[in-house]
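Q: What would this chain look like folded?
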Amino acid sequence: MRTALLTALYLGLTYNAAQCAEVKILTAGAFKPVVTALAPQFEQMTGHKLIIDNDTAGGLTKRIEAGEAFDVAFLPPAALGALANKGLVASEGQANVARVGIGVAVKEGTPVPEIGTTDAFKAALQKAKAIAVIDPKAGGSSGIYLAELFQKWGMTDMLRPKLVLVPGGLVATRLVNDEADLALHQISEIIAVKGAKLVGPLPAEIQNFTVYRAGLAAKSGNREPAAAFIALMQSPAAKAILQEKGMEPPG
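A: My prediction, written as structure tokens:
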């Protein structure tokens, strides 16, 4: 209760039942666990209701460009910037709220590969029978980066038959249902899957962080509560949630 009160004071939030709104949130999949974790606190403090939907960054970009109504979007900065240039996201009020790296996972109870160095990670890829990754064509940030990394290493042809391309959602579920024995995805999405074990992050020299940035819809009819939710993402209450969900402050 004390934390909620301090957060409310930090945000300057007030509860006015007559002005309660439904605030639509569009979030890239890796950031969804943070949004859903903070949603009950926001709703309790303000009386507003959050409608949360997620997709890949590329999927959300296409939906917004097609005219889907929303109030707040959590996307990588480049995606938000492109949407702002098209007049679909407000240029003002944007804020970086978190970043997350790519992790390696296996099914709980199975052998854990060595991934502490780039060479060890390459060896784990070569040894794996099936590797689940987000499909780059779906617009997932980790899938796009990994495809470029494999090509740079000259491993694309060797890995292609092993790849289990996931069009969206939680890649590590393919471990649980035995479609893959190795999964590569954003850490926040790996730890959200029961039955999947996070082996660890990619080695530092090849790690790729995705930054998540919040932006208001240019035509939002709920600008005040939408801005308040973005402020909550920058509050002290959000820091513990980020760590719990496998993310960190944007720096």
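The chain is about 40% helix and 20% strand.
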